[in-house]
Design brief:
Low-confidence stretches of chain A: 1-35
Oligomer: homodimer
Strand content of chain A: under 5%
Structural class of chain A: mainly alpha
Number of domains of chain A: 2
Radius of gyration of chain A: 32 Å
Number of helices of chain A: 28
Shape of chain A: elongated
Strand order of the largest sheet of chain A: 4-3-5-6-7-8
Largest sheet of chain A: 6 strands, mixed
Chain lengths: 663, 663
Amino acid sequence: MASVGPSSDEKNEAKEINTKRQSLVNQHSQNEHHFHKVGIPPRQKLFKEFASTFKETFFADDPLRPFKDQPQSRKLVLGIQAIFPILEWGRSYNLKKLKGDLIAGLTIASLCIPQDIGYAKLANLDPQYGLYSSFVPPLIYAFMGSSRDIAIGPVAVVSLLLGTLLQNEIDPTKNPVEYRRLAFTATFFAGITQVTLGFFRLGFLIDFLSHAAIVGFMGGAAITIALQQLKGFLGIKKFTKKTDIISVMHSVWGSVHHGWNWQTIVIGASFLAFLLFAKYIGKKNRKFFWVPAIAPLISVVLATFFVYITHAEKHGVQIVKNIEKGINPSSVKEIYFTGDYLLKGFRIGIVAGMIALTEAIAIGRTFAAMKDYQLDGNKEMVALGAMNVVGSMTSCYVATGSFSRSAVNYMAGCQTAVSNIIMSFVVFLTLEFITPLFKYTPNAILSSIIISAVIGLIDYDAAILIWKIDKLDFVACLGAFLGVIFASVEIGLLIAVAISFAKILLQVTRPRTAILGKIPRTAVYRNIQQYPDAKKVPGILIVRVDSAIYFSNSNYIKERILRWLRDEEEQLKAAYLPQPQIKSLLVEMSPVTDIDTSGIHALEELHKSLQKRDVQLVLANPGPVVIDKLHSSGFANLIGEDRIFLNVAEAVSSCSPKLVEEV
Amino acid sequence: MASVGPSSDEKNEAKEINTKRQSLVNQHSQNEHHFHKVGIPPRQKLFKEFASTFKETFFADDPLRPFKDQPQSRKLVLGIQAIFPILEWGRSYNLKKLKGDLIAGLTIASLCIPQDIGYAKLANLDPQYGLYSSFVPPLIYAFMGSSRDIAIGPVAVVSLLLGTLLQNEIDPTKNPVEYRRLAFTATFFAGITQVTLGFFRLGFLIDFLSHAAIVGFMGGAAITIALQQLKGFLGIKKFTKKTDIISVMHSVWGSVHHGWNWQTIVIGASFLAFLLFAKYIGKKNRKFFWVPAIAPLISVVLATFFVYITHAEKHGVQIVKNIEKGINPSSVKEIYFTGDYLLKGFRIGIVAGMIALTEAIAIGRTFAAMKDYQLDGNKEMVALGAMNVVGSMTSCYVATGSFSRSAVNYMAGCQTAVSNIIMSFVVFLTLEFITPLFKYTPNAILSSIIISAVIGLIDYDAAILIWKIDKLDFVACLGAFLGVIFASVEIGLLIAVAISFAKILLQVTRPRTAILGKIPRTAVYRNIQQYPDAKKVPGILIVRVDSAIYFSNSNYIKERILRWLRDEEEQLKAAYLPQPQIKSLLVEMSPVTDIDTSGIHALEELHKSLQKRDVQLVLANPGPVVIDKLHSSGFANLIGEDRIFLNVAEAVSSCSPKLVEEV
């Protein structure tokens, strides 16, 4: 404490006062050594300790807070409201909100209908299954979900992922019925996975897929999806089943002379230009957000009409041909509850369910932050899961929140999940009455719509920002991206997960350590690399360990500290200065939030090694958990309780009070 | 800074001085805000950044240090010495050292011979393979290894693990030849795994098995091994193949009436008593360490002689019968390099190799710390791996460092790895000349020897210490222990690894946060739970985040901080005191060693949420990496660079200089 406050740069006139004062401070500081012992928190009971860890892990968001101190009947009402939030917000629903929801609902409906038909193809399913998935799931979600802005339905990436995974098991052209049954099975288990994660409050598991990895994965998936559209866009009949860029380009160039259909290309290209132009307008002026939103439907109407009157389908332009009329048939009996396919569907369902969750939760959180309302991730998962379980029984495949449609929903002024009900109603009308009109819709137009939709998933800006902020994150991003493009969605996903985990492991195995120095005219000790004017204290090496000391890093930390000491001693020798030898090694433990048995063991070994070199081990500011364990393991006694200090300044002044004054 | 130093507890006579001084300090502190900006370290070049991360990860121990600034020829010599350390220490070898090594070598030889025969049985191999494995591997290790105290050879746990894993693939009684070939294949790949880990400096991977998990696993394995010995000990002929306690006890009690052989039990029990008594003597007085060390060999000699003269083998006492004479035959051609068994051997080899490494490295480190010499873990792995690769070609199965024999080696005064050469030589003589004498050795005596050996692996004290220090570690320990005992070694191992990883994940997903308060009469801010006399600063909520902010926890941290704020505001409301509202949220970032893109994103969202509540976000003491990223991402500009402070004290005094004085 003697060094606290300015001392060397005082004005002359203050010198006298200063000297007097200094002695006061010194006197005081000697008292203080008795006052400021490192606090040892009261020992928690074992059960309480477990309970609090459990609570922070699974109930970090304190979801039971509103239930506290309520009568039984009220708790029941609250419980039902927690499962069906519509009962809560529905009571304050009014006409003004309905207006916003109506416009938003109609807008996203016009956007989703052509997209659904295209996405169903990505999943190797007939077009109507895309529409089915935009009818039932949004309805269920509207009752159970708590996001006000998400737009539910099939999405590009999940459709592609599901299509790829299912295709590995069953050939969709040879066994369409079995393929479809497996799709429903996978959807069922995707829903079960989601409900389970939510119910057991394991939602934090999806946080293990890092933002960077998702950006790379999404970008790669978008390009893969766009490449797949070349089939419809160029009118190629024989197309590879693989999704990697090399196979696809091979397929495309191999068919350039006798596979491309110029009429198809003309239709596709002109409408793609129209769609991109509409997008551009929407981006340039936020007021015209509805232009890109309804452009796809307009394109479909115009292109269908054009093909119908010119009979272009007779010149090789491929058309949708037939979309089953009527709403979702039941598919309960089609789900495999026994046999080989049960396990396969289960596996595929877990993967698809997790990816669908990642997307939906990211959307939900983004808009909740924008409008500043609370969103319980785990409750959302239960809602999304329930909607997929019901969906799998009503001929839907995996639905989730769509990035692009949610953004349109938000911009169109949606107020509540009622916009999803409106959309669902429009899809219902479409299924009941309009599907035959899609007969002449050229496939090329669907491809154009999908291409223009997935372009938005390629987030250059995010990638550039990631590059700027964190190079390792960028490697994860690039790895996932290249994995998806050059191998497959699964490989890309695997790379993304693997790199994410590798980063966590790297973090815990190789924590940072730093040498601290005293910042002149303060009692503050900081990393000398960050603060070049910070001065080392002669005779004391101050090392800060920047992580909890666990089995995964205890050995490294011990050896790293000894290496710092060795380096320092060699430097001192090389300098030939009459510097005092290192007498104390001070470990600043502020960032050490926890220590386990291996960590204690490593400290003991460190202490032993230091003793052999005649260097004293001193600790500064161990946290509550650490000080508790230092005592219960007997380590505090081993090095002496008086070698553990409140902070670095006190420790330094105790180790060499004279030296501190000089610095 | 205004609060630095004592202010309220000054004596009256110092009041005048104090007031004058205070104004000086204040004046000074205003200057200082310009002086103590948070340091931004010079930006590192991309390559340099990667290189330094790479170096800390894989070359943390700086193994190339001695090579620096040396001429080419010297580098070559150093390189060869690095691979064969014997060339280095061999030059200073002398008679005095030889004396120590000779005694130690003879002692561990007498201990290892009976153990080897028993351990080979655990691995379902003929007795000579145990002896083979104590002949070649120790020789290789003596040339390549750098531990001076480790005793190499087959060990109980690895033998059991290998036996269990191999038995799952091939029945050793029905197909002994194929079984043996698979054993050599697994040994080969165990060696390859070890060399690979060492060569690519991935040695830190074994640190992911926590100390606690190993204690539990070893204890469980010891009990399982002891239970397996009941077969030989009781003379039971029909015995279960399973290793779990329930199957074994069922087998034992099921054969109580017509399977136990009383002569066998008498021999086994009396010698077990003798061995345990010898152990007790050795433990009581360290000088008599040689008593338990040679007791097994004495028992074997006595028991063999006894059986030979009484012809007890005709009364149902099972004997060893035949041990092949002569040294290790070549087994290069027996290793499966093609076919189905290649992959199986590979898989088993990886597991057995890793466990063998864990044991050897733990031993090496322990004794290196006791004698204070450096041990390069990665170099050790290469040596251990090379010895197993050569071993697999000379009819050995996986060898590693033995806990019990290494301890005896150390206590017998070994100086270098020459003691392993001596032991190896004695085993060679045994194989060449003495094996026929083992014909009448009763199996019961081998069982007794193994039981008395593995008892030492049950480390009660460690388990009790773990319980005291860390309850979660104890769960890992108990899980591994029960897993091994009630299921199998593999399951136990799996549980140990799973719990270890779960702990790491828990650590990174749910980091601790704490509310800080000012410790009276200091400028130190500490966790108010640890220091009950620390006082919150009115109007400012100070939260410390105790971990790097990564994708895996960024969301949790954001929401946890908001929850602290909400709780605090509710408390203030409930208190009805005329307390000022929370105006600033100060995040103490000292322990935040790194932040990634998700973390920056979370901070941005936090900032946004706080703005809506009219609370200002202030940061204190971000580290070098963090401040760099805060700037490159533009976040520092977003909240204002003047909202980032050197430490909490400065931040507080800037936020509400007046309030600080009052506290």
